[in-house]
Structure of PRD domain-containing protein:
Amino acid sequence: MQLIINQIFNNNTALVDLGDKHRAIVRGKGIAFRKSKDSKIDTTKIEKIFYLDTDESQKDLYFLLKDIPIDIVTTTYEIVDYAKKKFDYSVLDYVYITLSDHIYGAYQRYMDGKYKPSRIPDMSDKYTSEYLVASKGLDIINHNLNIKLPESEIRNIALHFINARGSDKSNQRYIHSKVDLVKLIKTILVRNNIFRTGSNSNYYDRFMIHLQYLLERLGDMAEDTPFDKKIELEMERDYPGSTGIARQIFNEIEKITQVKLNSKEMLYFIIHLQRITQEDGLNQNK
């Protein structure tokens, strides 16, 4: 099969057409050097290939490339590809957006000397596969980006896979209420003096993405386990302010959708809110 360049990102990375409107990202040393759009790729130079299997995955790629360097994006694709192939791990497409955004933020903080180890509780006993994926993911990040993030970063990476686990076939039952619900959540945030700002925009947008995809998987909400409840209580103890706001959002979603959410969702809300307020210099720990 001939691979035709659709877009060049740098000398080592390009987007190629596979035919029938299918595309992939290819990576390899010098693979796009002195090439141009519509040139043929030397397939012997391909070291990694990441298939964009759906229209949604292609849209996600273009969304990411607006703000995130291609090396971060391909690192994310490599981690997700590992999860799918090694563990047959099914994830929703939006993991590419949230994980890329997280890796880029961690990279920037590391390079600026502002990186802080994760304070997310260790959940490896409950989520073994996700932590194994995250452990390999940390190795990939450190190797590809030439940095040395600590092992505590595994908890952050694992959380993205826990959060995004599911079928690519979205549950459509609640999509009609998406816009109104997100608008309502923003109203709750404003009521608590939380606004989207230049400093917190990445975390704020990530929270909005989480809420939108939450609505699409409400029909698959898993029941609480004692472990999930234990983690929620630990986060509530450490971040009482963020927990209070998260509880308001939690209750409103349950009220509107008539679906009982679980402790895992409460945990995500607390983490998102803590990151938003911490980045913006607000103190929600009281």
Observations:
- The chain has three domains: 1-52, 54-169, 175-279.
- The longest helix spans residues 70-87.
- The first strand starts at residue 4 and ends at 10.
